Amino acid sequence: MDLAPEELQFLSLTDILRESVAIPKRSPKTFYLMTLALIFPLSFAILAHSLFTHPILNQLASDPLADPSQTRHEWTLLLTFQFCYLIFLFAFSLLSTAAVVFTVASLYTSKPVSFTSTISAIPKVFKRLFITFTWVSLLMFVYNALLIGFLVLFVIAVDSRNALLSFFSFMVILVLFLGVHVYITALWHLASVVSVLEPIYGLAAMKKSYELLKGRARMAFILVFGYLAICGVIGGIFGSVVVHGGDRYGVLWRIVVGGFLVGVLVIVNLVGLLVQSVFYYVCKSYHHQGIDKTALHDHLGGYLGEYVPLKSSVQMENLDA
């Protein structure tokens, strides 16, 4: 991103993608190691976990009258695996976010970049991201409760053949998923960047993210929806060919397709993390909030033990805007 801060607001979706894809070229070794150590395990786990849960679910569904002790054992195994998977997913998602956002910001401020320095900064960054994620999780809990409520209402309406109630509940579900879910995801991603690059996190980072999205919500919607759609397609093909395709495809073909899809998801996740970093600077520029590279440089140094207490200018706000 060699553009002046005030020019970033004029970047189109294509420009953002182009700038994001070009960033790893500035430090290929760092991004290669980061991708191998963090993003690859995350992407592999996202796709491969169904390979382990599918046989257990099949066993539970195929023999509902099985020995109760055996059934309890399978449910325990399934729930344990799912719990471990969610912990792994949560941890590597935050680790990947912290690493990419920190590295992109370091390159943006011409700060020396290496995989070692990025890993050294992650512990402090992770704590801030964890607090922000906790607040986002509370918001997602409320959203999921509403979604489940209207899904139940939709099922009841269909069962009772109430056309008006069915249509109403379906439209609400559609709005909740396409509108609210995508917006919360965009809010979360931007708040994650804010938590790393500014001296705020948690609820304050979410509020700042909400303010930055004003005027750029449509662009954020397209980016997030596109990312979710691509991930959905990859997951669908993986499930169809690799997980459920044993009767139609040979082992070798399933391995090849599975490996290819994991590789594609790795690229998609890396580009997605780069895009959310670039989009932060675009939003800052759009709202005419100055990006003090010197102050940002010092702020990043704080994660490595080089930190001097921030002055008000380090908040990277243009107070006169």
TrEMBL record:
Entry keyword Membrane: yes
Coiled coil stretches, renumbered: none
Segments passing through the bilayer: 31-52, 85-108, 129-158, 164-197, 218-243, 255-283
Keywords from the UniProt entry: Membrane, Transmembrane, Transmembrane helix
Protein's UniProt name: Uncharacterized protein
Organism in which the protein naturally occurs: Gossypium raimondii
